[in-house]
Amino acid sequence: MLDSLFQAFSYDFIQHAFLAGTLAAILAGVVGYFVMLRQMAFATHALGHIGFAGASGALLISLSPLVGQFILTLMAAGAMGLLGEKISKNDMVIGIILSFCLGLGSLFLSIYNGYAGSATIILFGNLLGVSAQDLLAMLCLTLLSLFFLGFIARRLLFSSLEPEIAEAKGISLFWISLVFLLILAAAVTLTSQVVGIILIFTLLVGPAAIAIQWTKKFWTGMSVSVLVAMITVWLGIGLAYLTDWPLSFWISTSIFLLYSITKLASI
User: Fold this and answer.
1) pLDDT tens across 37-61, in order?
2) Residue 223 · residue 26 · CB < 8 Å
3) How far apart are CA 188 and CA 145, in angstroms?
4) Within its chain, how far is the Cα of 202 from the centroid?
5) Residue 8: pLDDT above 80?
6) How far apart, in Å, are the Cα atoms of 189 and each of 72, 74, 208?
7) Alpha-carbon torsion angle 257, 259, 263, 264, nearest 10
8) Fewer CB within a 10 Å sphere, N or C end of the chain?
9) Which of 5-9, 98-102, 185-189, 260-264 has the least mean pLDDT?
């Protein structure tokens, strides 16, 4: 089995999948931890599904689904950002936007006359099909997102834990929320390349939820979140290669088992 796995790394598509999955896991682990602190799980779930319309719309005009998804997710994140710190209390508004975009995506797919498997790739991801060009785009997106997140990290943490005090100290909750949502849009786009739009919640929220159960300190928790995300992605790639079962299945199963064990241990 180990020999088979080592042999797999001689293939370009496995190398691309490993690198792309690692980039997505790092960003998902970091951003997901802030998502949990800010109680934005539903907004994250919605952004993932909103990107479905962008990805399917891009197919109609012969663009990369990655590009279309990122553009629409970014626009939706900007619109949600107008709600500022109230976003976690506006599930109805987010739900209406989500429903419209899902309907729009279904329309685009019904019009699309190309390869039918493209819809499956959008919904469930295709990490093993990442090209060198896609990998470069993912690298740039990850580095830019981490740069801006690092720039606002202290203020973001402060406003996440003590929003009233942070605002009294002169921190703009509106701008912090808006910038974070734009970073979240990038994380959602990258994560969907691994597990697809439907299972976006698995990798972007699951590892952070596990980390919060295991640790109490911020930096330790974020490190654990990134580590869990990376290990589950690496494990998923290996098992997908050995079994020919979907990568998204293995990742979602690993997260489910880890979270279940964590909850049972805390009882």
Assistant:
1) 988 888 888 888 888 888 888 888 8
2) no
3) 11
4) 8
5) no
6) 10, 9, 18
7) 10
8) C
9) 5-9
Residue written as tokens 């990798």?
203
CATH architecture of residue range(s) 2-265:
Orthogonal Bundle (1.10)
How many angstroms separate the CA atoms of 71 and 148, rounded? 18
C-alpha to C-alpha distance for 77 and 210, rounded to whole angstroms? 25
Whole-angstrom CA distances from 211 to 37, 145, 160, 204, 244 are: 12, 21, 17, 12, 29
Side chain identity, residue 161: L
Which tokens sit at 5?
């796995």
Task: Write a three-state SS string for the chain.
Answer: CHHHHHHHCCCHHHHHHHHHHHHHHHHHHHHHHHHHHCCCHHHHHHHHHHHHHHHHHHHHCCCCHHHHHHHHHHHHHHHHHCCHHHHHHCHHHHHHHHHHHHHHHHHHHHHCCCCCHHHHHHHHCCHHHCCHHHHHHHHHHHHHHHHHHHHHHHHHHHHHHCHHHHHHCCCCHHHHHHHHHHHHHHHHHHHHHHHCCCCHHHHHHHHHHHHHHHCCCHHHHHHHHHHHHHHHHHHHHHHHHHHCCCHHHHHHHHHHHHHHHHHHHCC
- Mean pLDDT across the chain: 85
Residue ranges per domain, the chain?
Answer: 2-265
